[in-house]
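Tutorial sheet, problem 5. The three components below are modelled jointly, 348 residues in total.
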Amino acid sequence: MREIDCEVAGARLLRWYDAHARAMPWRVGPADRAVGVRPDPYHVWLSEVMLQQTTVAAVRDYFRRFLARWPRVEDLAAAEDAAVMGEWAGLGYYARARNLLACARAVVRDHGGQFPKTVEGLRALPGVGPYTAAAVASIAFDAPAVVVDGNVERVCARLFAVQTPLPAAKPELVRLAGLLTPDLRPGDHAQAMMDLGATICTPRNPTCGICPLLGLCAGQAAGAAAELPRKLAKPVKPVRQGVVWVLQRPDGAVLVERRPERGLLGGMLGFPGDAWDGGGGPAPVSANWTDAGEVRHTFTHFHLQLRVMVATGAGNPERGGFMADFRPDDLPTVMRKAWDAATLRAVE
DNA sequence: CAAGCGTGGGG
DNA sequence: TCCCCAAGCTT
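Model answer (structure tokens):
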């Protein structure tokens, strides 16, 4: 680790942010900010939960749709579970959607509809961890919280030339991020760090030549910025095989089941199938099943080769139930792929 | 505390 | 095509 002038770095970063901050649906524009307008805590919280492990590009439209459908935290708290899960479909990490709803209800029930203003208060809410608590506290409430996400870790590892690999380096990187965090405009500082990591101090091919911290960065000076942060090698993903059964009734209703709250795709709609352990399994109902081909999908920790069986029929299924107002948009992506394969097959 | 948990885009 | 990985949280 090398020492740098944190005051100068912080000042340069804010100046850069004022000139280059990207417009986002959840951000307050420069004009409003100059007049002292603070971002709505509900908007900040909603965007930060969506942004967990998810790119800005992927979040934009989801954020707009959620806000249009549930303009206030009270509206979200009153929503049906299935409506929220369906609106979240495709965004991934579905525990976030379940926690989102639980959090909105806790804010309304336990806090009179007002988000807690402290890191500790926020941290106690479902789905709010160290990062999100600090982000909401600083961005929405101007608290000098230390915000550390993947971007901040990378920027700090390079700026201070930290050689320790992640995740062991995490505590040290949190300490260094704290040295950089100013008392004034901590929320803008946090967003500046993340914008810098997303646009200039990128994981690969960082554009050090246009970096506002050029000249202060120990990693760049050592010609090793792109090599940092060091990380432990990741294990290879196993390949798993499974089958799903897509059954459409003559009247158009589709056989689906609500997946268990816990585990993979928890709480989401899906088609009946096996455990994706290669064991296969019986069809949920007797019908004239045909093979609609294989769908490939990669999850966080395994690759899936999914056999899609399709039929038209009725009967009393052993699992799930027929849904009349079925909408493919409510499905998680892997299930939507299966639906696409099944319907494409049916058209032929 | 290591493991489980999605998805789409970029190199 | 494949690997990397992104504004993490929970258990």
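Marking note: The first strand of chain A starts at residue 239 and ends at 248. Full credit if you identified this.
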